[in-house]
Amino acid sequence: MDEKVSLAWSILLPVLLFFSINYSWFDAKPDVSKAVYYYASFWAFSTVLVVFNGIGLRLTDFREWGILKSFVFICGSKVPIIGGLLLTQIVFGLVTLALFTFVISVVFAYPVFLLFLTAACTYLLVLLPLFMLSLAIASLSVRASSAYTIVNMMIFPATYLAIYRGESTDFFSTMLYYLNPVEYVFRFSVFTYEVLTNNLQPNSNHLFLFIISLVYIMIGSIAWPKIKIASTVRRT
User: Fold this and answer.
1) Comparing C-alpha atoms, which of 52, 47, 26, 89 is closest to residue 192?
2) pLDDT tens for residues 2-46?
3) Crossing angle for the helix pair 181-196 and 144-164, nearest 10 degrees?
4) Which of 3, 136, 169, 206 lies at a CB distance of 3.0 to 4.6 Å from 223, suitable for a disulfide?
């Protein structure tokens, strides 16, 4: 809660963007089955932002300032500090999604509970794969400022690509698109909504969600031992 800028960036920005993009809804709003696609795009944006900033980039920051090295010496391993960051982001992510969903749903009179349940279930299901993927950021020997800049610059084109790209038909292009973490969460959100409303569409692309989850977990498993505890840019 002390990170005021991060809090505003993760909560206020999605709300303001949603209203600015969908201002026409005040005149004529879509039904909830269509609106969930718009919700899903912002849930995906917020989820990736929260996990990457709160875990991968935060570990890079801790390492640069020597905090990670101190924690490892005290605890004997990297597990407690990384596990602590994960638990923190569970709470912070759910609060972020709850506030966003509540505000939008109340303004446009959509079912708050159903939409928040969709967002919460999605977040908890994708958290582990995204957490593992974010460890790849922490494994890179780059300055924290550079890592923050690169990740936060990439989040917008990644979100645009996930929402506005055309449908792909072949296996390899679909896999390539699904490797985009924003698209991964976006598709997972739609899948979760369909399951909760008993309206699951027969779509073989659902298999890609499982495959990409395994790929992210594999990337994290490779990155874990590569996370250095000593700063690469200053003596600690």
Assistant:
1) 47
2) 666 666 666 777 888 888 888 888 888 889 888 998 899 889 988
3) 50
4) 136
Higher per-residue confidence, 86 vs 156: 86
**pLDDT, position 76:** 80
Using CA atoms, how far apart are residues 206 and 13, in angstroms rounded to an integer?
30
Distance CA 179, CA 54 (A): 20
> Dihedral through CA 187, CA 189, CA 190, CA 195, nearest 10?
120
Judged against a pLDDT cut of 70, whether residue 146 lies above it is answered with: yes
Amino acid in the structure at residue 130? L
How far out from the chain centre does Cα 81 lie?
A: 20
The upper half-sphere exposure of residue 48, i.e. CA atoms within 13 Å in the direction of its Cβ, equals: 28
Structure tokens at 72: 């490892």
Transcribe 152-211 into DSSP letters.
HHHHHHHHHHHHHPPPP-SHHHHHHHHTSHHHHHHHHHHHHHHHHTT-----TTHHHHHH
Q: How far lies 207's CA from each of 125, 175, 192, 197, in Å?
A: 15, 10, 13, 19
